[in-house]
Predict the 3D structure of the following.
Amino acid sequence: MSGKVTRRRRLSESGFTIVELLVYFVIAVIVVAGVYQLLIGQNRLYMKQRELQDVRTSLRAAGNLLAFEFRQASAASGDLYGIGPDSVKLRSIQGTGIICGEHTNLPRYGLWGTTGEFFDSADDSALVFASGNVGAADDTWKIVAQHKVMEKGVAGVGRCGWTDKVVGKGKGVTKGTGPTMEGVGVPDIAVETRGDMDNVYLGAPYRAFRPVTYGIYQDGDRYWLGRRVGSAANYERLTGPLRAPADSGLYFVYYDSAGAATNDPAQVHMVDIILRAESLGQVRRPGQEPGFQQDTLTIRVSLRG
């Protein structure tokens, strides 16, 4: 009697059978495999979006920079030194300020409210606004050589005073329509120039420039947007990667005032900037070989005039 009771107790306390374990195991494998595939898909989607975002960031950075340079340029003033389908050389603004004082006998001028950088190499120049007589008929921007850039304390330029006197040739002549503010204070920096400063008055805007070439160049097996400042022989990398030149990684189309395409730097009125970028890394795609994410940006810019 006790043997039967023991056998029944063992049967009632028995665990899973082999068949049940196999069923549970198969179900668990299916669930885990589904979760794994979901995670793989989510990771691929994340990688795809991350690379695409990187491409668009590169495009925005390159487009904004090139658009800014063209908007500051004037073909009529000779700011475009050379134009090509995938490169451009132009006068690039580096710093701005306002003439607020001058040396007693040297062509040195104090600049107030400066922003950016000022250099004094053979490549550097500046545009200075000459207001001329009353009215705008004879107003112009004069190009001068930026010969020296000096600290404000050692240039011999005194405190800035917003007067209405001209600088340069004929200085000391009063012009009744000039600025009237006084006591601006010590200039931020001082520059020494070479060039015609006639009809330039205290309070005139001052813009420092350098020639800069923007173009696409190859480094290894990838292409990048680069910049050559002044007489530099090699490009410095700005952003990318871009598509190859044959695939219009960087492409410029120049238009004159009538909207016709032109290759004459002096006639450029508008520019189409076409950029095609690709991701730094490749992305796996279902049923396809890994590849780069790509996107395109086109901007039309009008020059300063």
Remarks:
- Helices lie at 2-12, 18-71.
